[in-house]
Amino acid sequence: MADVEQYRATFEMVDVDGDGFVSVEEVKNLMRVLGQEVSTLRAVEVVVAADANGDGKISLEEFAALMEAARR
User: Is pLDDT of 2 > 80?
Assistant: First the structure.
């Protein structure tokens, strides 16, 4: 299990609207800021892959797990 506090600051920067979740639009915005345009379909795929509880958005815990998986 990932240490969520390790990713909180990054999560809060990505969660532009401050609702406590990362949405498809916020994934697209993040990728744009990182210099890579992604389609809505690709952003949806990222959210679905990270969304462990199936609510259609990425929580801090899911974000931390995604970041840990990307490090491997």
Answer: no
